[in-house]
Amino acid sequence: MKEFFQSPKIKIFLSVLLVLIMLSVFTRNVENNIISATFNTLTYGMSKVTAAASSDNSNKSYDELQKENEELKTANRDLRSRLVDYYEVKEENTRLWMFYELKKEHEDYTLIPATVLRRDTNDEFGSFTIDKGTDSAITVGDPVMGENGLIGWISEADVYTAKVVTILSPQTSIGAIDKATGDTGIITGSAKYADDNLTMLSKLTSEHKIEKGDIITSSGASGIYPKDMVLGEVTEIGYDTYDTSNFAVIKPYDDISKIVNVAVISDFEGQGEILKKESGD
Questions:
Q1: Is this structure's pTM higher than 0.90?
Q2: Is the pLDDT of residue 258 over 90?
Q3: 236 C-beta neighbours (distance < 10 Å), count
Q4: What is the distance between the alpha carbons of residues 45 and 41, in angstroms, rounded to a whole number?
Q5: At a CB cut-off of 8 Å and minimum separation 6, what does 247 contact?
Q6: Which of the two ends of the chain, N or C, has the fewest CB atoms closer than 10 A to its terminal CB?
Q7: At CA 198, angle to CA 225 and CA 179, rounded to 5?
Q8: Domain locations in the chain?
Q9: Nearest-angstrom CA–CA distance, 20 and 16
Q10: What is the CATH code for 109-279?
């Protein structure tokens, strides 16, 4: 074996092999270093270029986005304004359609649709303020309709709003009649019944024939309220020991505490004629 490794051919072979191995290692290291250096240089350069391009694009995009943002804000404002107008018109149309049948039955009525703005929380009789006033030809004393009947009257009016006192209030005094029996009385409110959305038909004669379920309407006797406006339905018959008179408890067909849309009757045939005759005008 010793002689084998000492052979000239073997020595030459081993020497060449060693040189090749060293060259291979050296070349690989150099090659890797060159490639690494070259790659790092190229990467650094590309990153600089990319960074510059990104910076330019970012600035450009920001300006464009800022402009688009302003345009969108303007468009949104315009859209909101249009939506407000749309909903106002839609609400007005809803109110008009709500009282369309009333207008069709009473062509002499001048109806002014209105919406409840706020309620008087200190008033146990349900008074409220509407969004129409003298600018819409509304005056004190005008009758106020709910969807299903007469619910009150205008007690105060300024240019753009008006206050409504309801038929639940003792301030109310409306001549009324039982359509079935012809018995008459006065619709006026009472603290005893107001919380239950009830009012009273007072001043009934002892011979009255009113019964539960009868429909009560306005008599139109004073000229303040139109004739035959529905006020409600009889739910109870009573006797007032204080003024020794008979009365009926009336339930309006509208829940006055939840009223949202109303119509003010600003004019009707025969309005004020009785008062004019009484005053001699």
A1: no
A2: yes
A3: 13
A4: 6
A5: 185, 200, 201, 202, 203, 204, 237, 238, 239, 240
A6: N
A7: 50
A8: 2-95, 109-279
A9: 6
A10: 2.40.10.350
